[in-house]
Amino acid sequence: MRCIQAWTRPRRVWFISAVFLALGIILYWKRQCFRASDWMVLLGAGITALVILWQGTLVVRQIQLQAILDLDKEWNSEEMLECRRSAWKRSGTPNLECIESVLEFLEKVSSLEERGIISKNLIWDTVGWYVWRYYIYCGRTIVQLRKKWTETYDPTLYQDLQKLCRKLIAMEIRERNKRGRTPKSSRLTVWKVVRELEKTRTEFVRGERGSDDG
Q: What are the sequence ranges of the domains in the chain?
């Protein structure tokens, strides 16, 4: 797992590429010290290193894609759908006794992103729509759960979910402002996103409850 995590940071790839570029520049200025055969060896080594980096990137992308597909499959499984139906009362408030399973799944997704196993972009494209809604709608419930299992308030519970929620909302704001091309005064903000979520809360809960909502 640690090996996968090490390869999942794009900045590492760019850093290594920059190192090779810097070495190439240095060697260029010192070229009078090398024979033609030496340059061929160096060129071959550089190409090999780039191929390894490229293959490593492909492997990482494949692992990330498989991971997010597995998570998406679990999220839409019959068992999870039943948990999601039971997680909400008819009044639209979270069911404290049933919603923990759903929040635990979303916390798992968030922890994988926090540790670099999957990217927030893949999450944003798949289950991200649910991440921030569950976190925002279950704010008070999460406070209750943070007090439920310890004698005092435990801020570490659902900590990764909280971080991921903020990241995804920031992505939503950035993307919509970029594509909407609206005047600065009309640009989307965190407050506007939260207000939108509250306005669509009833529809969201009805969708999660499914046909049971009548």
A: 1-74, 76-192
